[in-house]
Design goal:
mainly alpha; five-stranded mixed β-sheet; 28 helices; 5 strands; disordered N terminus; disordered C terminus
């Protein structure tokens, strides 16, 4: 549909660059793309959540349906088109999911640089290569686009399609609805992009653009009908699991937004410059209104939903190209009020370059820390799932709070997401426990429902230590403490822990501990122990024991471990024997008693303890695991 109201951009005659030929401009764009591809490839990792999409695609190709667990119709993804893309290339060409996702992720990120060129040419009559260079430098230094392009998620593809829709609105508005449909099928936030463009058209045309509205919604109707019929809901299950309404979520969203503005946004400068131009430059709002509307609406959405659990600015990736664009063009217009145009172009590059250095330095440690942490968690989950498959047979279920890698590695096994992302019962029927605190954004859980499912294994994100609210709630149940014991698999001189059910659960005999402080002290103890502060850890464990008021083998072992490190061998041995008296298969206690026997040159006892472990838990001695290529060496977690 042609739009007569956008004449301010459509009727411009854009002259060629005054200093560069067309082929040289193309070379500049290609150079920016090449630098981006190189930057993205240096991260070389896969986000754990990507494996959720891979499992959906694999089950779809296997004829089990678009499901995470066979027979359970739950829309646990928010990237329908991305999942279908993975399935298409695997089914037709045999290309694995990882290669497909990385190729299209990096390609989408690279295309953003070309789309920004088109956006600049759509607005600036006096176009200059320095402006594009300034914008490219800003986007390259940001790190988040490169980071998420290689991560195998749909983030950069969605950012590319959102920007493509905005560019089309200026250059080929008849294409806008189709691009918005694609964006929405990639992520539900496509509706936010649609809302910004719809609002801008209403302002421009001074009437409701009915045809545009229908061109967007009618193609999405079959998808909506499919969701209602197949899943029973228009909203994906993660919406119920992650999102909510209230001041708690808004506060979290504000914190998430401010961290973005403070680090990669250089204490809000990235937003301050466009706002200053909006206030001082006449006609600035009229020319860039759509981009401002998009920026404001998307940031408001981020705040409303509470930000994102994935911390490397993921939700801001679709906003960053527009923020960078507005920063650069605003800087040009502001500087042009006090300098000649050519000087303004050069100064803009200088300003953008200075900003980019600050942005990179302020965000560098944050990005690196989460990059390393993500590699550690996926490496750990790959290891645990491999060892479970090797030693625990082919017929077991597992509940976990981090389900991507383990879910993909354990295809065919029922995987229960403790956070509810792929489990409708947990997401839509959450429990509430007074005094429950956690730094996790995923606050929904249903520990009673989870125990009723009787999973054979339960995998905490941090080994022994309950971290997520779903993990902490489990520890309050007597049936969890009495029916699950830990087992472990050795990797790089530390054991990776999983909880194993050793008897049937009967919720009629379950008693829920009313004191959350027991959990807090337990967590504090494991935290202090992980930082080698053994006396504070022992004090916290003793406090937890008093509050629990019953035998708990893991607690006895943890106390004994602290005493052993404090060279209080007799007291440590007493704790280990109490753990064995409570659970005759407490492998941690036997292993520590073997260490004590070795110190005392008691060969007979040492051999007896090791013989017991070899008989009952032979996997404890399996060091045959070979990590896949690119997996970093494991490091002990705080709880391992």
């Amino acid at each position: 549909m042609a739009k007569q109201s956008r004449t301010y951009s459509q009727q411009k005659t854009i002259p060629a660059s005054p200093t560069l030929s067309t082929w040289w401009i193309a070379l500049l764009i290609l150079a920016a793309m090449a630098l981006f591809v190189y930057s993205s490839l240096t991260y070389d990792f896969t986000q754990d959540d990507a494996y959720i999409s891979f499992r959906y695609a694999a089950n779809f190709l296997d004829g089990k349906g678009l499901v995470f667990n066979a027979g359970e119709r739950v829309e646990g993804y928010t990237n329908f088109l991305w999942v279908m893309l993975m399935a298409l290339f695997k089914g037709l060409f045999g290309i694995d999911y990882l290669s497909t996702s990385r190729f299209f992720g990096v390609l989408s990120g690279a295309l953003v640089f070309y789309l920004l060129y088109l956006l600049l040419r759509s607005h600036l009559q006096q176009w200059h290569w320095l402006i594009y260079a300034a914008l490219a430098v800003m986007l390259l230094s940001n790190q988040s686009l490169a980071y998420w392009s290689i991560a195998s998620l749909e983030t950069s593809a969605f950012a590319c399609m959102a920007l493509a829709a905005l560019v089309a609105e200026y250059r080929k508005p008849q294409l806008t609805p189709a691009l918005l449909v694609i964006a929405t099928l990639l992520r539900p936030e496509g509706a936010v992009v649609f809302g910004a463009i719809l609002f801008d058209r209403i302002i421009s045309e001074r009437k409701f653009p009915t045809f545009f509205f229908l061109m967007y919604f009618v193609p999405l109707l079959p998808f909506a009908v499919f969701k209602l019929v197949y899943y029973g809901s228009l909203f994906p299950n993660p919406y119920y699991a992650k999102s909510g309404v209230g001041l708690e979520y808004i506060a979290s969203g504000l914190e998430y937004t401010w961290y973005f503005l403070r680090t990669t946004g250089v204490y809000g400068v990235i937003l301050a410059v466009p706002l200053l131009a909006l206030a001082l430059i006449k006609g600035h709002w009229t020319q860039y209104r759509l981009l401002y509307l998009y920026m404001f609406m998307y940031m408001a959405y981020i705040i409303w939903v509470g930000g994102d659990v994935l911390k490397v600015y993921r939700f801001f990736v679709p906003v960053m190209p527009v923020l960078g664009f507005l920063f650069v063009v605003s800087a040009v217009e502001l500087l042009a009020t006090v300098r000649q145009k050519q000087q303004a172009f050069a100064l803009t590059l200088l300003v953008a370059g200075s900003f980019s250095v600050g942005s990179y330095l302020l965000a560098r440690d944050h990005v690196k820390a989460y990059w390393l942490a993500e590699q550690q968690i996926t490496g750990k989950m790959h290891f645990i799932s491999t060892m479970l498959r090797k030693h625990m047979g082919s017929d077991f279920s597992l509940a976990a709070s981090t389900i991507g890698m383990v879910g993909y590695q354990l295809m065919g096994h029922r995987i229960i997401d403790m956070l509810g992302l792929t489990d409708a019962s947990i997401a839509r029927n959450p429990e509430t426990i007074s005094g429950m605190t956690s730094s996790w954004k995923e606050r929904r859980f249903n520990s009673r429902y989870l125990l009723e499912q009787q999973p054979d294994f339960i995998l905490f994100s941090t080994g022994y230590k309950p971290s997520a609210p779903a993990e902490r709630a489990l520890m309050l149940h007597s049936e969890f403490r009495h029916c699950y014991r830990t087992t472990g698999f050795l990797r790089d001189q530390s054991y990776k822990i999983v909880w194993q059910r050793w008897r049937d659960i009967d919720m009629l005999r379950d008693r829920v501990l009313p004191d959350m402080e027991f959990i807090n002290k337990l967590v504090e103890g494991f935290y202090q122990q992980g930082h080698s502060a053994m006396q504070p850890a022992l004090d916290a464990f003793n406090d937890a024991y008093r509050r629990l008021g019953e035998d708990f083998p893991v607690l006895y072992f943890a106390m004994g471990h602290c005493l052993l490190r404090l060279n209080q061998n007799d007291s440590a041995a007493t704790c280990f024997r109490k753990a064995i008296a409570t659970d005759s298969l407490c492998w941690e206690a036997y292993s520590k008693l073997a260490i004590l026997a070795s110190r005392q040159n008691d060969t007979a006892s040492f051999n007896r303890y090791l013989g017991f472990l070899s008989q009952h838990s032979p996997w404890l001695f399996d060091e045959s695991y070979i990590p896949p290529r690119g997996t970093p060496a494991a490091s002990p977690s705080l709880s391992d």
